[in-house]
Amino acid sequence: MSTAQPITHQGTAEPVGATDTKTFGIVSLVLGVASIVAGHTFLVPIAAIVLGVIGLRREPASRTFSIWGIVLGSVMIALPVLLIAFGIAVLVPLAALAVLFG
User: Fold this and answer.
1) How far is the C-alpha of 35 from the C-alpha of 33, rounded, in Å?
2) Which residue among 62, 73, 94, 102 has the highest number of C-beta atoms inside a 10 angstrom radius?
3) Taking 60 as the threshold, does the pLDDT of residue 26 lie above it?
């Protein structure tokens, strides 16, 4: 019995047909940039984060694209939450003062 060896490129251990794709990383980056415009939807930034994590795990060549997609998606999810919290922290006391002195 012989064990079948995968066909490899000459001088490398990569199987034929294995390429360094950057699809997930690029899509994550594009969605991260698009989330700046469509960040209020929460769907686009979440998709950027998910695809960025998948890109980090599956495509080492797209590490930079994936990281930027994750960062932009995370910022665009956190920004509305922080603005709402700040608005509540400022407007509730002002409303209370308006009721007391108004």
Assistant:
1) 5
2) 73
3) yes
